[in-house]
Amino acid sequence: MSGYTGPPALTFARGLSAWTASVSALLFIFILGGSYLWAVARMHRSGRGWPVGRTLCFVGFGLGSFAIATMSFLGAYAHVLFWVYATQLVTVLMVTPALLALGAPLTLAEAVLPAALSARLAVWPATLLGRVMTYPVFGTLLIAAVPFAVYFTPTFEFVMRHRIAYDLGQLLFVAIGFLFFWPLLSSDRHVRRWSWPLATLVVFVETLFDSVPGMSIWLSTRLIAPTYYADVARPWGRSAISDQKFGGVMLWAVGEVVGVPLIIAMVVQWMHADEREARLVDRALDEAGNRIPESLAPTDQLPKPEVDRPWWETDPERLRRSRKFDWD
């Protein structure tokens, strides 16, 4: 069709070479990546150091995945092919935020900021707003609602037709995903942690729920945003409805690719936590067995009696939870 002004047909070779510049994505990457690397450099100059694994997760994999999602062929063809935008959305919603959370940015910021600002940042998770934003249900509901809000309301066509809304949507999806993964994966010590059973259950339920919009789009025979794709008038590739069905498959598949390994990781960490707790209990019993009996010890060396405390105040798992997913 003579009115078509979009990119040429998407082939494998074209997919490798098709890159596009996004001012908003570049600013996001440079600001976050530059700030993180500056903070890491300050840590090393002070002699404290910073785990390489965290830096790789945040800068290399986290911001790298955002660059690929927004400026590779995913960015170049997002306005032309439904399945490309679906893949882009689930990447910035689930892949990028998970990797950014593993970088423990709050802990790094606390370590390098001035004392007054660092103290305020440290207590923020304990404030009302902080407790709400890191509460398990809050992030879970937000991330589960995104595909429904995008594809089953006029939002999708509005985003496709307005570049500012499209760019802001990408940043918003990263923020929503971060709120879900932050208390789940982050090593930031002041963030409320989920227990392993709760974390495993939440990830399992969220993964199941994520499959609903993708499967619904795949099974639907009604075209989403038909007037928009009529205006695009793409003369090559599969039909609009076939493209949409493939997009539903990608929306479901990429979500499962992220969710299933995460569930496995949760179960493995849960099992390891039980093993670590058993070792701590055995060590405590061994130490208790090596103590001098009261009948043989001098009176002035007898230990003072301790008042029994509830198990949840001395639970090793609760004390250890601040170090999960830590590369120290």
Short description:
The chain is an all-alpha fold and 328 residues long. The chain has helices spanning 12-17, 23-45, 52-71, 73-76, 82-101, 105-112, 115-123, 128-133, 136-151, 155-161, 163-185, 196-219, 226-232, 240-289, 311-314, 316-320. It is globular.
Structural class: mainly alpha
- Report the order of strands and helices: HHHHHHHHHHHHHHHH
Q: Regarding quaternary structure, how should these chains be classified?
A: single chain
From the alpha-carbon coordinates, what is the Rg to the nearest angstrom?
Answer: 25 Å
Total E-strand runs: 0
> What is the first-to-last residue Cα distance?
58 Å
Query: What is the count of DSSP helices, taking H or I runs of 4+ residues?
Result: 16
Low-confidence stretches: 321-328
Helix content: over 70%
Global geometry: globular
Strand content: under 5%
Mean pLDDT: 81
Main sheet overview: none
Topology record:
Blueprint: H1 12-17, H2 23-45, H3 52-71, H4 73-76, H5 82-101, H6 105-112, H7 115-123, H8 128-133, H9 136-151, H10 155-161, H11 163-185, H12 196-219, H13 226-232, H14 240-289, H15 311-314, H16 316-320
How would you describe what is shown here?
The N and C termini lie far apart (58 Å). Helix content is 71%, strand content 0%. The chain is built from 16 helices and no strands. The C terminus is likely disordered. Helix 6 packs antiparallel against helix 7. The longest helix is centred in the C-terminal third of the chain and has 50 residues. With 328 residues, the chain is mainly α. The radius of gyration is 25 Å and the shape is globular.
